[in-house]
């Protein structure tokens, strides 16, 4: 099946054509209008999607060398995300599908991250997956195709927020995650003692706020500008503290649930140490670790197309009455 995937849940405008699990094109236009505000401005994001989406879709069709008539289904993100932004992609997808007389399928954004590694490598249920990005840090068990059970999530900041906020205190540009990663490669991870939150009880939830506060207090005492070898040590220590918390929870999830693979997706899945430690965890259990390539880690249309075609294969399409759900928490994502 040749499917068009549309992603407009936040500030990236994405469109992709995927044919039988093969990516023919995957175009993402980032919206730099938000940079001067230091965060995403929802109204500006929706307006930018309206301008960008038709062009991004055309580029996706051109790159894939397919015409509108050769598209057999359309998928778009229905949530979670910014309502105004989601609506742009959803209504475009519905209009496209109605005009062509083809099915449309509304996709849960988190579910799309979870299955995204399956575009590049074998990823079969049962598996355990983590989505770690600027907006999400959640662990899922996928016991069978199409069933996504959230088994843990952050109680406060997302992992990406922790990288970005601590990185900002270090004077790094936004988003700080990739810069911190680069600095950390040449630093000593045991240079600075930082806490790893231990939540009470039998939970796979996690917390980043204690670490963030500790890093803030610690950094207030550092002379400015922080000299070179020192900043690398701090970056490595911060990265290790964040990754330790994530990987400990992943390990606990793997002990609790049947899994023949583990996957980590979302922007933070680009992190070098997170990949290394997750790969080590998986190797110790004799299962593969699957990470999407960097282009598929960030928000993109290909993962939406892929999740959409998996849903269609399971016999799920979406009625035209369905629309955006900002805090979408269900769909095929089932709570435990
Ligand atoms: O999925 P994503 O592109 O978008 C949103 O969450 O909206 O994730 C972006 C997040 C940012 O917080 C960024 O700092 C983080 O992913 N990130 C990284 C790395 N690359 C991106 N964090 C740590 N190490 C990286 N290499
Ligand atoms: Zn995302």
From TrEMBL:
Signal peptide: none
HAMAP family: TsaD (MF_01445)
Descriptive protein name: tRNA N6-adenosine threonylcarbamoyltransferase
SUPFAM superfamilies: Actin-like ATPase domain (SSF53067)
Ligand binding (Fe cation): 109, 113, 299
EC number: 2.3.1.234
Keywords per UniProt: Acyltransferase, Cytoplasm, Iron, Metal-binding, Transferase, tRNA processing
GO biological process entries: tRNA threonylcarbamoyladenosine modification
Keyword Transcription in annotation: no
Described purpose of this protein according to its UniProt entry: Required for the formation of a threonylcarbamoyl group on adenosine at position 37 (t(6)A37) in tRNAs that read codons beginning with adenine. Is involved in the transfer of the threonylcarbamoyl moiety of threonylcarbamoyl-AMP (TC-AMP) to the N6 group of A37, together with TsaE and TsaB. TsaD likely plays a direct catalytic role in this reaction.
Database matches in InterPro entries: ATPase_NBD, Gcp-like_dom, KAE1/TsaD, TsaD
Broad enzyme group: transferase
Localization terms from the record: Cytoplasm
Residues noted as binding substrate in the record, renumbered to the chain: 131-135, 164, 177, 181, 271
Cofactor(s) of this protein: Fe(2+)
Entry GO CC: cytoplasm
Gene3D superfamilies, per database record: 3.30.420.40
All residue ranges annotated as the Gcp-like domain in the record: 23-305
Family as reported in the entry's similarity comment: Belongs to the KAE1 / TsaD family.
Key word tRNA processing present: yes
UniProt-recorded Gene Ontology molecular function terms: iron ion binding; tRNA N(6)-L-threonylcarbamoyladenine synthase activity
Catalytic activity, as annotated: L-threonylcarbamoyladenylate + adenosine(37) in tRNA = N(6)-L-threonylcarbamoyladenosine(37) in tRNA + AMP + H(+)
Cofactor binding note from Swiss-Prot or TrEMBL: Binds 1 Fe(2+) ion per subunit.
